[in-house]
Amino acid sequence: MTHTDWPLWEVFVRSRRGLSHTHAGSLHAPDAELALRNARDLYTRRGEGVSIWVVPSTAITASSPDEKDPFFEPAADKPYRHPTFYEIPEGVQHL
Amino acid sequence: MTTTPAKDTALTTAALALGDDALVLSHRLGEWAGHAPVLEEEVALANIALDLLGQARVLLSMVGDEDELAYLREERAFRNLQLVEQPNGDFAHTIARQLYFSTYQHLLHTELAAGDGPFAPLAAKAVKEVAYHRDHAEQWTLRLGDGTDESHTRMQRAVDALWRHTGEMFQPVEGLDADWTGLETAWLERITEVLRRATLTVPEGPRTGAWTAGAGRQGLHTEPFGRMLAEMQHLHRSHPGATW
Amino acid sequence: MATAAARDTTRSQAYDAPDGAADTAEYARAFDAAVAADERIEPRDWMPDAYRATLVRQIAQHAHSEIIGMQPEANWITRAPSLRRKAILMAKVQDEAGHGLYLYSAAETLGTSRDELLDKLHSGRQKYSSIFNYPTLTWADVGAIGWLVDGAAITNQVPLCRCSYGPYARAMVRICKEESFHQRQGYELLLALSKGTPEQHAMAQDAVDRWWWPSLMMFGPPDDESQHSAQSMAWKIKRHSNDELRQRFVDICVPQAESLGLTLPDPDLKWNEERGHYDFGPIDWTEFWEVLKGNGPCNEQRLTRRRRAHEEGAWVREAAAAHAAKHTNGQTVETGAARA
């Protein structure tokens, strides 16, 4: 038996105008055009989308779980980036 | 069992022609379930079959009870093109049938949608569905025609084999207000262009013959159609009057 | 930073062999802590080999079941007795192909390609649910599959939406949403038959008689004989035991059968006030093991047909791959909708 495993594509669907595309899943397709069509058939057959992106899975560069701490922990101790960090006298509005 | 067409005969003739085309092709595509060359294509073929079945139900319901019309007419009362009743064959045959039919259906529905006849509302919805069917068929024609030697050979064989059933599509149908000559010219142009891009040769044989010309529209079908109907109608006919 | 896709096979193996025992122990502690805290494990996290293997086996078996499961129902698409039923059935069988796709994708995040998994299915090295080795003899079987088989599947699957492995849990959320239509259409189909002509009613009863016991077997062997259960529970791949889920299913079905006007083929079925559950008769596990071993009525037929579809489709897949190879000078990629 021959193996012609089609490449894997990641599918991103915009569920309605005004929202961003979110990852819906993946599928196999020989090329981008069929990937788009397969994505339409598979991920929007119940009216789940108004726009689709397909990206070759190999084109995604991901952060590694090993680097999780250096990547993400430094952001955890900077509460001053969040509005709740600041105390505002009661009664002051529109802040 | 006869279904009495209540409305005028021209409307009935036209609704049955369009409705039977959609019904029969949907059935043939349904036969692919579980057999498609790749899982993604199971989903695609089923989508097309469901669109067509939806069209058929609207059209048949315009002139009678959809189930009576689908399940209780004899073979000679069906008005579909012989093209759509042709067995699936290999994937190339299915794609060639899709290419020929969806190109025709797209042109016809575009014209019907622009008019103000009784089919305009249906055509307006169908034309969007069919545009996708045509795109699907064209995409695959390109890939099979310009893929491997084997796929090229198979695709050429398929477009050749079905060519003789393409002439009947442009026989005028009573009740359908269309420029049939214009449709045929546009169809030939589009098909020629797609086949060329797919590195395929436009078949040279006749597109009509003494037997095939408009025969399906007159209730003359090919042998496989009788067996298809036998399978489709058997259960319904075994329980007269039952509801499901 | 890894320049590979999240599910690149080489990457997902990368954490299988940490440098030293100390590293492994540290990874293992982090993994255990995550599972204990009900956090999800994601594809590129370190995970024990056995956890990965268990998931691949279970997700693959689940995916295979979806695509083999298309066959018994597709058997009736061309004979559906009304156009409405035909549309419903086509949509349902299509969903199963879709579910197979979601699940193969989830399995692929663990570093096994769909081709590999299909090979294992075709060569009999991986199983699919035994329920699909029973034949669909009448139209009513389509209803019985929807009500009982999909009902059992949903009972099994709803807890999997909280499975510890993220991609599997997410696939299950999507699947469960879609499955509820499957079960309802089956119930409605049977109800129409049960209230129809005497012949239709008999057809419905016969189907329920044949599918009831195999449906109960879908929950797997009793807890004390189930070889994978304990570890899967600890890993939160599984959330409830086989017997627990089976009981839940029986309790749900009894009143539903009454509303249908059909009986369940078990003389021992009765309400047990003390337990707060229905008691039911003994399951014929000999039959279960026989069907599992390949001696069911349709094992050979299902696998042969699946293999044939795959083999007959090979030239199509090759053609598309060849076409893509000829035309990858950027032109095809351009048509992406990224600017939409």
From TrEMBL, chain A:
Protein name, please? Ring-1,2-phenylacetyl-CoA epoxidase subunit PaaB
Species this protein is from: Streptomyces griseomycini
Automatic annotation (TrEMBL), chain B:
Supply the EC number(s): 1.14.13.149
Among Pfam families, the record links this protein to: PaaA_PaaC
Q: Name it.
A: Ring-1,2-phenylacetyl-CoA epoxidase subunit PaaC
One biological process GO term for this chain? phenylacetate catabolic process
Q: Which NCBIfam families match?
A: PA_CoA_Oxy3
Give one GO term, molecular function aspect: phenylacetyl-CoA 1,2-epoxidase activity
Instruction: State the superkingdom.
Output: Bacteria
- Keywords in UniProt for this one? Oxidoreductase
Xref: InterPro entries: Aromatic_CoA_ox/epox (IPR052703), Ferritin-like (IPR012347), Ferritin-like_SF (IPR009078), PaaA_PaaC (IPR007814), PaaC (IPR011882)
Please give the organism. Answer: Streptomyces griseomycini
UniProtKB/TrEMBL annotation, chain C:
Top enzyme class: oxidoreductase
Q: Which GO terms describe its molecular function?
A: phenylacetyl-CoA 1,2-epoxidase activity
Q: Short name of one Pfam family for this protein?
A: PaaA_PaaC
Q: Give the UniProt entry's GO cellular component terms.
A: cytosol
Q: Which UniProt keyword terms apply here?
A: Oxidoreductase
InterPro entries in alphabetical order: Aromatic_CoA_ox/epox, Ferritin-like, Ferritin-like_SF, PaaA, PaaA_PaaC
Protein name as catalogued: Ring-1,2-phenylacetyl-CoA epoxidase subunit PaaA
